[in-house]
Structures are given as structure tokens and as C-alpha cells.
TrEMBL record:
Protein family: Belongs to the cyclic nucleotide phosphodiesterase class-III family.
Name by which UniProt lists this protein: Metallophosphoesterase
PANTHER family linked: CYCLIC NUCLEOTIDE PHOSPHODIESTERASE CBUA0032-RELATED (PTHR42988:SF2), PHOSPHOHYDROLASE (PTHR42988)
Domain Calcineurin-like phosphoesterase per the UniProt entry, residue ranges: 3-229
Domain of life of the native organism: Bacteria
Pfam families named in the record: Metallophos
Record keywords, A-Z: Hydrolase, Iron, Metal-binding
Organism of derivation: Rhizobium jaguaris
GO molecular function: hydrolase activity; metal ion binding
């Protein structure tokens, strides 16, 4: 039995002081949005409560599906690296980046360099290499294959779309097939929801059809994503049946906002190839914002 916890859209705050040079870019729109909207509902203490509850459930692994930062400034990226260290050994936490982690040109590379131990495949070089394509990566933990994909790209102002490339698709299919042949339960992690209509046009994932082809061809047992700040369940067609695609609320969202309060998913994986058992539980911040409570259990086909 393997327990996998899932959080997303951390948006570590508070927003640091930025220079005029840093604000002379797309960051100015995000800066204004933070002060008008996000800072009213995103709370660091909320994230601490989630992490404490995850620890109490004795999860074997933590999946973080993007948006660790807000405007991807150098200070934010370094702060996120220090926060990741507080989670423990990188071998037990797997990260994929989101659009906020690639907010402006150059920020994606800085973030991946700083967070490399958490986005590093099992057989990747020990140190960051500038010209190496990290994604997709493969990590095997017990009888579970964790495959991390990236949709993080810098976009123009007022856009938050992601891109899933043909190269990633080819390599992801190969990883999924190999993991399936090895008898592993396959979990794909991605930031943008790979579901048409799951988010607005300017926040969409470019390459949704490509990703759907990957799952229908390569096969998977579970897909995890973030980006929408919503608790959702969708389905994609796999080679032998439907594959659950699960989203989760922002891990820093306080109560009383337009989006649901902070939550995490806890998946319990048991069984064997052809007879996997997947239990999905969701735990969420209560209305007072001072405790985490269970929200329900689903037994998902796999």
C-alpha cells in the first residue's frame, strides 16, 4: 500500500519588494493583481496546516503540481527552494512547474536550477545542466511510477496558458509504456488541466489533444494537475478504460473566497497490474480556517 499526497498552487507569500526593473515587465500586472485580490485570500499559515495534516497521515510521497511562486522574482525562487527543503528529503517530494514559475522569460530556467533536486528523474545527472531537457522525468517509488511533465512557459500579459510539446509527448508515451510493462501504477503530474473547457481560454493548455493521445496510447492509472484552484474530477480515455484526472484547490487559499478553501488529495494505492485499487480522499481547511477536515472518499476505477 502506497500513500501519495497531492498539493498545488502554493503561491508562497508575502510578495517581496521588487525593483523597478523587475516590475518593468509582465510582472506589473501580476503585482497589481496580487495586491488587489490574491493577498486577501492566500495565507501562509493555511499551507502549514495542510502540511502538518499530511504528515499525520504518514504519506509516502508528496506531489506538488506547480505555481510555487507568484511573479517568479529571484527572491521568490530562492524562498521556494528553502521552503522545499523544509519538506524533507527531495526523494520524497516530486514537483512540476506552473505558469507562475515561468512568469517572465528566464524565470523558468532559474527556478529549475534552484529546485532541481525535486524535478530530477531517478537516472538524471546529479547536478543541473543548462542545456538538458528535464521533462518528462520518471521516478519510481515502491510499485508507483511518478512521471512529471511541464506546461510552464512565459506568456504575454493577461495570459496564463501552458504548452505541452510534441517532444514531451513522445517521451511521455515511452515512459508510460515501459512503466506499464514493468507492472507499475502510473501517475502523471502536470500543472494545466489536460481537459478541454476546464479553464478559460487564456488559461488553457495548448496541446490538450496531444496529451489525450499520450494517455490513450501509453496508458496511465492517474493524472494530477493544478492551475484552476478547484477540486475537480475529470476522465480521459486510456487503452483499457477511463483514467481519472484530479485537480485540487490552492494550498494557500483561506476560507471565504470565491475559490474553495485550501485542500489536499490523499491517494492510497494497492493491488497489482490488472487489479489496482485506488482510494482518493480529500482534506480541506474548515470554515474557521484553523483546522483540516475530511471532505469525502472515492474509490476510483483504475
Amino acid at each position: 500500500m502506497f500513500k501519495l499526497a497531492h498539493i498545488s498552487d502554493i503561491h508562497l507569500g508575502p510578495l517581496p519588494r521588487l525593483s523597478i526593473r523587475e516590475l518593468a515587465s509582465k510582472r506589473i500586472t501580476g503585482f497589481v493583481n496580487w495586491h488587489r485580490n490574491r493577498r486577501k485570500h492566500l495565507f501562509g499559515g493555511t499551507l502549514d496546516l495542510l502540511l502538518e495534516d499530511i504528515k499525520s497521515k504518514q504519506a509516502d510521497h508528496l506531489a506538488v503540481t506547480g505555481d510555487l511562486v507568484n511573479l517568479a522574482s529571484g527572491i521568490e525562487i530562492r524562498t521556494a527552494a528553502e521552503w522545499l527543503k523544509t519538506l524533507g528529503d527531495p526523494a520524497f517530494t516530486s514537483v512540476v512547474p506552473g505558469n507562475h514559475d515561468a512568469y517572465v522569460p528566464g524565470s523558468y530556467e532559474k527556478a529549475m536550477r534552484a529546485w532541481y533536486p525535486y524535478v530530477q528523474g531517478d537516472h538524471a545527472p546529479a547536478d543541473w545542466q543548462e542545456d538538458r531537457r528535464i521533462f518528462p522525468y520518471l521516478r519510481i517509488r515502491d510499485n508507483v511510477a511518478l512521471i512529471g511533465c511541464s506546461t510552464a512557459v512565459a506568456t504575454p500579459p493577461f495570459a496564463a496558458s501552458g504548452f505541452y510539446s510534441a517532444r514531451q509527448a513522445r517521451e511521455t508515451v515511452n515512459m508510460l509504456r515501459a512503466a506499464g510493462e514493468a507492472g507499475l501504477f502510473r501517475v502523471v503530474m502536470i500543472h494545466h488541466p489536460p481537459i478541454r473547457g476546464a479553464t478559460s481560454f487564456y488559461k488553457r493548455m495548448i496541446g490538450i489533444r496531444r496529451f489525450a493521445a499520450v494517455i490513450s496510447t501509453g496508458g496511465a492509472e492517474l493524472v494530477l494537475h493544478g492551475h484552476t484552484h478547484l477540486n475537480t474530477l475529470h476522465w480521459l480515455r486510456g487503452p483499457t478504460g477511463q483514467v481519472p484526472v484530479v485537480g485540487i484547490a490552492s494550498a494557500s487559499q483561506g476560507p471565504g473566497g470565491l475559490k474553495p478553501a485550501a485542500a489536499y488529495n490523499l491517494f492510497t494505492i494497492a493491488g497489482h497490474p490488472g487489479a489496482w485499487e485506488l482510494k482518493a480522499e480529500r482534506f480541506s481547511l474548515n470554515a474557521r480556517g484553523d483546522d483540516i477536515q475530511p471532505q469525502g472518499v472515492d474509490i476510483l476505477p483504475s
